[in-house]
Design brief:
22% strand, single chain, 360 residues, 5-stranded antiparallel sheet, elongated, 48% helix, Pdz3 Domain, 10 helices, alpha+beta, two-stranded antiparallel ribbon, 3 domains
Amino acid sequence: MSWLPVILGVIIIFSLLVIAHELGHFLMARREGVRVLEFGIGFPPRIWSIKKGETRYSINLFPIGGFVRLFGEDDAQTGPRSFNSKGFWQKTRIVMAGVTVNFLIAYSIFTTLLIVGVPPIIQNLPSFGPVKPITETSAGLTVFSVSKNSAAQSAGIVEGDKLVTLDNINFQNSNDLRSYTKTRAGQEAIVVYQHGNTTQTKTIVLGKDENVGFLGLVAEPVQISKYSWWAAPIAAFVLMLELIVATLAVFGNLILGLFTQAKVSEGVAGPIGIVSLFSQIVRFGSTYIWLFIASISLSLAVINALPLPALDGGREFMMILRKIGVKISPERENLVHIIGFVALIGLMIIVSVSDIRKLF
């Protein structure tokens, strides 16, 4: 599988989610009457920009985020259209608008998928009272792995394909498939499988291992779970609460592992790990891709909402401290956010190194 489309796909997904996040800040700032100096995608140095009205729109070299620069946000400037001139709740709406947008994107996708149906990649779907999933079994066997130099690989079958028939037989489970192939070692067989939107028919020679025939793949029926139109929004909300708790636990384990064991915990993936994961997910179709997008959007919202320097939650935390009487100068707050930003970049580098080690 070519890595370039996968890498581009991950960059596009992250970029669109970041644009949506920053667009939330942008629109809310405009709504509250704050002057937006710059709407930037990526982090400087700037490689392209254009100024329209009072706002400069820019694309920057490092595609790892984005920003909205507001008049009076990082200094003591005041005025009718400055960030500093607004009240606490106006500032809160502006600062947390990006997080809200990412939550809404995730919620919309999860709700839609729970109506359409999701594969068993999500364990323990919400089930309480009348809110219960309805389970259906999809037609055919979905291929989850293919052995090297096997008959299945020679036919061009890859992970995510659907096995339709073998010798015109439609198998209901993997046990029936193995029972059929094991007595036909070295014999020809006609395999029909679905790859994407196309159906392929190939003649193959079954493998032989101690006179036991095999096709060389692991394929299982996939159970699809769905909710009624009225239950899906409730189930999606509960599911997101569970995922939020899980995300916080993973982030906590990451920090704890770095300080106590000087290593990145197994459940944590950085940019390289996410690319590797996406390369596997994309083979199983659009439902898996949308689940990936929703999960990333939710993770971005949760992490950004944490009260850490350089994040939206950190800025909100500083505003709360000022609200209760703690005196913090704009210069000191900027220094805290700069240190936090450097720490986050360092954390990303550490996790990326861990991703590389896991790959090899």
